[in-house]
Write a structure and sequence with these properties.
Nckap5l, rod-shaped, mainly alpha, coiled coil, 128 residues
């Protein structure tokens, strides 16, 4: 969402490994109960967050590379489009020039035919 990064824990991710419940040794005093210290829990949480940060950094790098590829592709396509537009203008110009040339050729041919007919008429008139 517009560059906002959210840290979301999946339910299976970052779950501490199952540890047996604290056990009491019956031959010791009740204060000697084995309990997981809070430091281990915070270490596990830190490791989990560090792993998530690494995962997000890898995803960000992959996204940057994909964005760069898309930018390069867009630039390439824009160049191709510009080239095609130039070629299309050239083709249209050539087509117009060819049509003009064909029109001039038809006009010249009809003028030549008229001149031939007039020449033939004048030759007949002089031969009489």
């Amino acid at each position: 969402e517009a560059g906002r990064i959210e840290f979301i824990k999946s339910p299976l991710e970052c779950v501490p490994p199952a540890q047996p419940p604290p056990t009491t040794e019956y031959n010791k005093a009740p204060l000697d109960v084995i309990v997981t210290p809070p430091q281990e829990k915070t270490d596990l949480a830190k490791e989990c967050l560090e792993a998530r940060v690494l995962e997000l950094e890898a995803a960000l790098e992959a996204e940057r590379k994909a964005t760069q590829r898309e930018r390069l592709l867009a630039t390439k396509l824009q160049r191709q489009l510009a080239r095609r537009e130039v070629l299309q203008r050239d083709v249209d110009r050539e087509r117009r020039l060819r049509l003009d040339s064909e029109c001039r050729l038809r006009n010249s041919a009809s003028e030549a035919e008229r001149c031939r007919a007039r020449l033939a008429a004048l030759q007949r008139e002089f031969s009489r």
